[in-house]
Specification:
single chain, mainly alpha, globular, olfactory receptor activity, GPCR_Rhodpsn, GPCR_Rhodpsn_7TM, transmembrane helix, receptor
Length: about 375
Amino acid sequence: MWDLGSRLPLRDGCDFSVAVAVKGYLSDENVNFLVSPPVPHCHENSSRMALGQNHTTVTKFILLGLTDQADQKQLLFAVFLLIYAVTMVGNLGLIDVIRASSTLHTPMYFLLSALSFLDICNSSVFTPRLLVSFLSADQSISFVGCVVQMALMALHGTGECLLLAIMAYDRFVAICHPLLYHTIMSKRLCVRLVVVTYAVGVFISTLQTGNAFILPYCGPNIIDHYFCDIPPVLQLACSDTTVANVILLFFSALITVPTILVILVSYAYILVTICRMRSLEAQRKAFSTCASHLTALSLFYGSVFLVYVQPNPETASAYNKILSVFYTIVIPMLNPLVYSLRNKDVKAAVQVRALNLSRKGIC
């Protein structure tokens, strides 16, 4: 009797052992083939593909957050709670002052109130969840909750990009065509621009979120971030993410590049117009009007470009966390301060509003 051992390949890179037992000679005795049970030797990619066929395997994700140190969590909780409180009070207060003051019923302040509303929504998507993570040992978020958070993040981020570009165009019309300002920037046009901003935000949000979650998630569920951002979520996919990363880069650039061009062209014309002004007082007033908007633009677009518009978004997670905190939590707090502290009209309206409220006994 001879025992022969061999390994037969299967598809997907698997193989199993086969033992063959031959009794006697083939000419005059029976031949028996004994096949041993399959012993898997599959490659990792094959097993991941097999698991990835069920896209609902992952039911929740674990967010690592900003830190795992208990003493740091207590400090960070106090800091971010203060930031969130200032964000809500500042933006809600700015909306109330613009609504109550007739002198601020202009296209510029209408757009500013829309920006404040976006900042409130954007901050509320991230900060409450982050505050809970500092106090709770459970760092998980459901699969559906992760989808919703990513969709809202993309919606508000896209909306803010577009709204900042619209505000730059508003400044261009106000400075370069002051006599036609109220004709061009009518209330109807401003309302339509805000509606279009949200419509485009919903469209881009649907594409970006769908691009991320159409991929299979079959095992790893730990997200190295404090919210469901697109790049760290894509790293958990069980299939190749090259196409998904290209789509992410494409749509991020599709929003940021045109809006940046609108801003640059608008401010180029503004600069030329200001330089042609003969009055130094008029030049100073024009520069002062644009300074707040330029500050907000630099803060927002600078951080967004560094996080999303890069060839390989999977390389610097810790660095991206800091930048993400800046544009998702800190900037919504800074915007009302930037637009009001250097604006005499807003400061005067705040004083009048406070006086009226004090007379009514509200404050």
